[in-house]
Write a structure and sequence with these properties.
By secondary structure, this protein is mostly beta strands. It has one domain: Jelly Rolls. Helix content is 0%, strand content 53%. The chain is built from no helices and nine strands. The strands form two sheets. A five-stranded antiparallel beta sheet has the order 1-2-9-4-7, with no helix packed on it. A four-stranded antiparallel beta sheet has the order 3-8-5-6, with no helix packed on it. β5 and β6 form a beta hairpin. The radius of gyration is 13 Å and the shape is globular.
Length: 101
């Protein structure tokens, strides 16, 4: 996590499903308004949405939104820094697959 200021938002709930020499698989569950907290990704990763909805992303460059749709995965590269927030009035979930070098 970085030294960005903390908020009064609830914390998203990560459950590590698998870790081996090649991957880390984590299920993330977000209550409405929940956040991951500021962090920097140490690996390339793939996100597999389990629900459809909107994420708010706080980044060093400012805020933006990202729409998730069940079954439409996306990938990002190592070094991404952000705070991920559930911008919906309902629970949101995704699987994050980190690819170790």
């Amino acid at each position: 996590m970085s030294d960005k200021a903390s908020t009064d938002r609830p914390a998203a709930q990560p459950v590590k499903q698998l870790e081996n020499e090649r991957v880390i698989v984590t299920e993330w569950r977000f209550a409405p308004g929940a956040e991951t907290g500021w962090h920097r990704h140490e690996h390339d990763y793939v996100v597999v949405p389990l629900t459809t909805g909107t994420l708010m992303l706080e980044t060093p460059e400012g805020e933006r939104t990202a729409d998730l749709k069940i079954g439409q995965s996306y990938a990002r590269t190592v070094g991404v820094e952000h705070n991920v927030i559930n911008a919906n009035a309902f629970d949101l979930a995704f699987i994050e697959i980190e690819l170790k070098a």
